[in-house]
Design goal:
Layout lengths: L5 H12 L7 E4 L9 H16 L3 E6 L9 H13 L6 E4 L4 H13 L3 E4 L3 H8 L16 H12 L9 E4 L14 E5 L13 E3 L1 H12 L3 E5 L6 H10 L7 E5 L2 E3 L6 H9 L14 H7 L3 H11 L6 E3 L2 H11 L4 E3 L1 E2 L2 E6 L7 E7 L9 E7 L1 E5 L3 E2 L10 E2 L3 E4 L4 E9 L5 E9 L16 E2 L2 E2 L4 E8 L21 E8 L11 E4 L3 E5 L8 E8 L6
Parallel strand pairs: 1-2, 2-3, 8-9, 10-11, 12-27, 14-22, 18-19, 20-23, 25-29
Antiparallel strand pairs: 4-5, 5-6, 6-7, 13-26, 14-17, 15-16, 17-24, 20-21, 21-22, 25-26, 27-28, 28-29
Helix pairs in contact: 2-11, 7-8, 11-12
């Protein structure tokens, strides 16, 4: 992590150097009710790398104490995301594995007179709790006897009441300035089948009760969490102390990371998936880790982005261009640079022999000679980008092909545009050119200066391809609208064209730099007959 994380590093370093902890143990505790997104990556990277920095370990613990929206699908996806990022949990635990211990600790609090069964409805509980300006009012059920509470709690466990009919609440301080300490609910009734426990339980512990207990049981030394839990820390400590846990973990909060033009809400992402406004959680426009991976982002780029953003005790917002910069930097020296044509225009070299194909040599990456070279096909029939040709040169800055002008085809020859052909609608469909065989790349020819260099793909050997071009998924900032009504209709555009036959098979997730265009990744829908590429980022920032 970078130097902006000093407040956290210094805290852990102090504990290590002063013998307060023998081994740093952190945990990453996602709730398995959604796929991880780029915001979760901040906590994930922080938990694992802070422990690694001090030769400690990190547990993955699924916070599966709310069965309403949890599913094994999300468990599997989270494990895969963590492995993809290059992290290896010391252990994989589930909050539900501690249900029996948590239940027994609740009984312990009842026996100590520190918890009671309450009959208030959720609405009544909220009303009795008061607000920041008004102290809470004690529940009329607050002074039930220990014996009555024990019996009622057992009845709750045995399924004798309806959902919402009773809860177990801590007995703390209804006048506390911290509303979280005003007799918080520790258990509620839910008749929902659990993805691991099945129908064994119908009472489930609340996060504020279960989480500190789980941390203590696992020997977590530093429970790192987002700033929203800052005012929950007194309750966290209260649970540890009054449950008389043998180990005392420390909760430390850091600010959230927000990213411009990026949805950071699980609820919104789920709505987009459920409404089929996106193709799924791995839609390349989604900020989920599976979506970013499918689009072509690398684990190294994401981790560097998280590290560069740093940590602080306040919430921060960073520009999404920073993530783009990280992927460009990561791929610059790792990818083969090949030619592709997204909006093809036919070029015919009229003075080149019909039926002949020759091959010119090109470096796979001019900055990394160790990546070797490849052969590029050249013939009479070629494709160029339509935007690389205009009938007349508009100004001195236009460095492409126009009638009467010469350009160099990259790695090949000078060509000169002499004539165009049109279809019945008046669109240019072919440019007739001549080439100068003396100008072959590498020949040392320098008698004339061409009007720029442009890419091409040989028509007979080029591979047909679709190119997925993306814009921001949400551009409408009207928060009064439903998220499904704010989807940018231009967020996914498909273009057809060709790529050079640079290799016999293009692997799923394989990355390339398309020369003078951007970085692309092979999509999972790609086949050898019809390649499909996702645009990761253009060569220059597209963020305005």
């Amino acid at each position: 992590m970078n130097d902006n994380t000093n407040f956290l590093k210094d805290r852990i370093k102090y504990d290590v150097e002063n013998g307060i902890v023998k081994e740093v143990v952190t945990r990453f505790p996602p709730e398995p009710n959604a796929y991880l997104h780029i915001g979760h990556a901040r906590a994930l990277v922080t938990d694992f790398e802070m422990a690694m920095m001090y030769n400690g370990k990190t547990n993955l613990r699924f916070d599966d104490t709310n069965p309403a929206k949890e599913d094994a699908e999300f468990v599997d996806a989270i494990i895969k995301d963590i492995e993809w990022l290059g992290f290896h949990p010391a252990n994989i635990f589930y909050g539900s594995d501690y249900f029996e211990q948590t239940y027994q600790l609740a009984i312990k609090l009842i026996k100590k007179g520190l918890a009671y069964v309450c009959d208030l409805s959720p609405e009544e509980t909220a009303k009795y709790r008061g607000d920041f300006n008004t102290p809470g009012t004690p529940s009329p059920y607050r002074n039930r006897s220990v014996e009555e509470n024990l019996q009622l709690f057992e009845n709750m466990k045995n399924g004798m009441y309806k959902e919402g009919e009773k809860t177990l609440r801590a007995k703390i301080d209804m006048a506390s300035p911290n509303i979280n300490m005003r007799d918080p609910v520790f258990y509620r009734i839910l008749y929902i089948k659990h993805h691991r426990q099945g129908d064994k339980w119908c009472i489930y512990p609340m996060y504020d009760f279960a989480h500190p207990i789980q941390d203590a049981i696992e020997g977590i030394t530093h429970s790192l969490c987002s700033l929203e839990y800052d005012n929950h820390r007194p309750l966290y400590d209260w649970v540890i102390e009054n449950c008389e846990m043998e180990h005392t973990p420390k909760q430390i909060e850091f600010g959230r990371l927000n990213i411009t033009n990026t949805i950071m809400s699980k609820r919104y992402l789920r709505a987009l998936v459920d409404s089929k406004k996106v193709t799924g959680y791995d839609d390349p426009r989604m900020p989920t880790l599976v979506g970013l991976r499918r689009r072509g982002y690398t684990a190294d780029a994401i981790k560097k982005f998280i590290r560069d953003a740093g940590l602080s005790r306040t919430n921060i917002t960073v520009d999404s261009s920073g993530l783009e910069a990280c992927i460009r930097e990561d791929l610059k020296l790792k990818t083969m640079r090949i030619m592709a044509v997204k909006d093809p225009l036919k070029v015919t070299i009229t003075n080149y022999p019909e039926g002949q194909i020759e091959y010119v040599e090109a470096e796979n990456n001019a900055e990394v000679l160790e990546m070797g070279t490849r052969k590029i096909a050249f013939s009479r029939d070629l494709y160029i980008e339509r935007e690389d040709f205009l009938l007349e040169k508009p100004n001195k800055h236009f460095k492409r092909l126009a009638l009467g002008l010469e350009v160099r085809l990259m790695h090949a020859y000078f060509i000169k545009a002499n004539e165009v052909r049109y279809d019945d609608a008046g669109n240019i469909v072919e440019v007739l050119c001549t080439y100068d065989p003396a100008t072959k790349s590498g020949s040392g020819f320098n008698e004339r200066k061409p009007n720029g260099n442009i890419g091409f793909v040989e028509a007979h050997t080029g591979r047909r391809a679709n190119f997925n071009i993306f814009e921001a998924l949400i551009t409408d900032d009207d928060a009064t609208k439903d998220i499904t009504e704010r989807v940018n209709p231009n967020s996914w555009k498909v273009m057809e064209g060709f790529v050079e036959n640079a290799k016999p098979h293009f692997e799923n997730e394989e990355k390339f730099q398309f020369i003078r265009d951007g970085y692309y990744a092979v999509d999972k829908t790609s086949t050898d007959e019809k390649l499909v590429f996702n645009c990761i980022v253009p060569l220059k920032s597209s963020v305005k």
